[in-house]
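re: ur question from earlier - yeah i can do the single chain one, its not a big deal. heres the input i used so u can compare w yours
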Amino acid sequence: MGYLRQLHTSSGRVPTDKGYRYFVDYILKDVPMKKETLDEIHEIFTRRTGYLGDVVNEIADVVSKITNYPAVVKLKGLEKLVIRNIKIVPLLTGQALILIETNSGVIHNFMDVAGKIPSQTYVDASNFLTSTFGNQTLSDMVQNIEQYRSKMGQELLEFSSIFDRLIDSLKSLCDKVEQNKGFSAKGELKLLNSPEYKDVDKAKRVLNAINNPDDMEQIFEGETQDVSFKIGKEIPIEDLQDCAIACADYVVDGESVASIGIIGPQRMDYAKIASALKFVVGEFANLNLLKNSPKGDDNDEK
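and the output i got, formated as tokens:
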């Protein structure tokens, strides 16, 4: 029937791509996760940091440890995030820390500062920018900046140096995300623990694909709020067609903000991986990251 195959004449039978697909579609059931595993994931969501990129990368690291397979994260939809608050904090290094609270978490970046600017100017600029750009998306703020300039007129002159550097910093951040397509891989070498990848050449091809943003872009095509699997020939990357890939999206206000994928052999523990990803995505959905964003004084944030 095409569900099993014999690797050689003296071997037993193993599932084919079709067999694993049947298992995932009709037999797979969730399995309960160990309490220490749940506690480890939950701790990440309750830490003080609310930086979106940091949280997503830490989650990828934990998921990789849980499953013992590589985890790939694609941070996407950054430009669609809605601005809630902007705070600019001067640092002793001659730079300023930009904290942009969004509907999904806190984005942070640094900007260079020319000359000495009074601390109160940063406070006033932060309040002004928040009132101006609150409830707008990052892309709207960056792409339509000239339109905003004309509307703000004289009000902008007082904060022009801060404002210009803020926009340059945001453009640099968006360009950086675009350049590597927002990908981060964790635990790639864990793949070598599986007997399927003892062949060095085969392992190299898989590892190269995992670290190739163009290849990974194809893996995350489409969006799903639940866990989905691609198995064998269903994977569009030839070097990964001996693998299976589990994917899940983190969705905020109907927008996919990040995707998490697990890559492993076709005999991976599908139930354990599905349970881990569902729990992680559920924690994302149930948590307001902004509750944990930095709210201390300037010295704390420095």
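Strands lie at 4-6, 13-15, 71-75, 83-90, 95-102, 106-112, 183-186, 228-231, 243-252, 255-265. not sure if urs matches, ping me
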